[in-house]
Design goal:
The chain has about 270 residues and is mainly β. It is built from 3 helices and 18 strands. The strands form 5 sheets. It has a 5-stranded antiparallel β-sheet with strand order 3-8-5-6-7. Strands 11-17-13-14-15 form a 5-stranded antiparallel β-sheet. Strands 1-2-9-4 form a 4-stranded antiparallel β-sheet. The longest helix is centred in the last third of the chain and has 10 residues, at about 225-235. About 30% of the residues are buried.
Amino acid sequence: MKKLMLSALSGVFLVALFAVAQTEVASINIVGYSKKPVTSNNWAMMSCNFDKVGGGTNTLLDIFGTNQLKGVANLTSCDKIILWQTSNLTYQTYAQRTGFFYKANSVAQWTNAQTQSIVENGTLVPAGVGMWFVPGGGATNKTLTLMGQVVTVATQRIDIINNWQMLSYPFTTDFKLSNTLFFANGAARSGNLTSCDKIIVWNGSSYQTYALWTNGQWYYANSVTEWTNARAQGFTATNPISMSEGFWYVARSNMVWSETNIYLNNLL
């Protein structure tokens, strides 16, 4: 029978294990959840590192349900989820009211969507996509619960464009930038800070940029000075990035990010 090595899934709380079996296990669906603390009045760059329960791609409703986000008539007071659209390099904001998501880039869009009953509950949030959580006015600290099936595929392939995109790690675990396969997949490396791919992480109040040097390692790079000093002192991006965190990726060219599931061999 298949067993799960819990240590491989850092930050995941497992709540159920289902197996379809006759003489042997034919499939396994490991259901779990993670907690994402969000601070009042601060944006949070986040992600859902689970598959949809039952299979398929997660939607906004799958991820957040109907009772986690503050939704009222006044758009300013609503919690908001913002997705980045690589097709036109713009944001699309969504807010929820009475269990329904509506587009909400402006009060007019929010009002019209409700008047015309244009519901966005089914908006897809594929694996590897990051998003902003924006607390509504007068919000207090809260913890979002993100739930789903542990990702059990061997490889995730995500299209990267020559520009900005908001991404997340496409598997159900913490990770380190130094262990990702961006470099192996063709990410631009350079000794010139303006010519290499960058990853930008939001810490709740400010950004930290990392850039890919010629040796294939990510170094601190909020400025040319930081970049130069980090390389000289060997300050690579070895810090782990927790589950439920999103990040910006700034690519110098199109590529496919093909990432390997690092815990798959522990699902025995």
